[in-house]
Design goal:
The complex is a heterodimer of chains A (about 110) and B (about 110).
Chain A (H helix, E strand, L loop, with lengths): L4 E3 L2 E4 L5 E6 L6 E8 L3 E9 L2 E4 L8 E7 L2 E6 L8 E8 L7 E2 L3 E5 L1
Parallel strand pairs in A: 2-11
Antiparallel strand pairs in A: 1-3, 3-8, 4-5, 4-9, 5-6, 7-8, 9-10, 9-11
Chain B lengths: L2 E3 L4 E5 L4 E3 L2 E3 L5 E7 L6 E5 L10 E2 L10 E3 L8 E8 L6 E3 L3 E6 L1
Parallel strand pairs in B: 2-11
Antiparallel strand pairs in B: 1-4, 3-8, 5-6, 5-9, 7-8, 9-10, 9-11
Chain lengths: ~110, ~110
């Protein structure tokens, strides 16, 4: 198993541009999570899905952020328009159930200039 | 509401010294507890789960329900243990984990 796959690994974009981050969870995992990590705020849960349905999006900072999971093998996190304060590492994780914990992807390092 | 507290932001120890990374949780039910490790600029990796009662890379953690703690311990620190360590709590509902703020372990010669 290739694990949780995220793309791109690095993204540099200009303020105001749309950014789309992608995640492929481990096959068979029914929960998917998007996290943001910064030095100032640490690890923050943005949104999570169970069986492709968004369960809790209370961590999504603003309407500029949106996430979708059209099927069990793919999810996107979109920022439109992007701002410099969105610069962070965005992690995707998947899980077959709480008792097993999460498996994290390698993250996308986003820089908005 | 559930909460995870890691009181130390930074723990600095000498190589060969014992290590204890503290984790306290707040939850009235039966908790599921985990330790994750993040090496520099890498992804978070599951280190161990309380349910497995295993030892990984020499680390162990025992769930103490009376003290609501799940401290991570290692008898002799190695340089390669330098990393960020996160404690996480699961409550069995909807697969969501609550993470602590993390402790940076720095092992020096």
């Amino acid at each position: 198993d290739a694990g949780v796959i995220q793309s791109p690994r690095h993204e540099v974009t200009e303020m105001g541009q749309e950014v789309t981050l992608r995640c492929k969870p481990i096959s068979g995992h029914n929960s998917l999570f998007w996290y943001r990590q910064t030095m100032m705020r640490g690890l923050e849960l943005l949104i999570y899905f169970n069986n492709n349905v968004p369960i809790d999006d209370s961590g999504m900072p603003e309407d500029r952020f949106s996430a979708k999971m059209p099927n069990a093998s793919f999810s996107t996190l979109k920022i439109q328009p992007s701002e410099p304060r969105d610069s962070a590492v965005y992690f995707c994780a998947s899980s077959p159930g709480t008792v097993y914990g999460y498996t994290f992807g390698s993250g996308t390092r986003l820089t908005v200039v | 509401a559930q909460r995870v507290t890691q009181p130390e932001k930074l723990l600095s120890v000498f190589k060969g010294a014992p290590v204890e990374l503290k984790c306290n949780y707040s939850y009235s039910g039966s908790p599921e507890l985990f330790w994750y490790v993040q090496y520099s600029r890498q992804r978070l990796q599951l280190l161990l789960r309380h349910i497995s009662r295993e030892s990984i890379k020499g680390f162990t953690a025992d769930l103490n329900k009376g003290e609501t703690s799940f401290h991570l311990k290692k008898p002799f620190a190695q340089e390669e243990d330098s990393a960020m360590y996160y404690c996480a709590l699961g409550t069995g509902t909807a697969s969501k984990l609550t993470f602590g703020t993390g402790t940076r372990l720095q092992v020096t010669l």
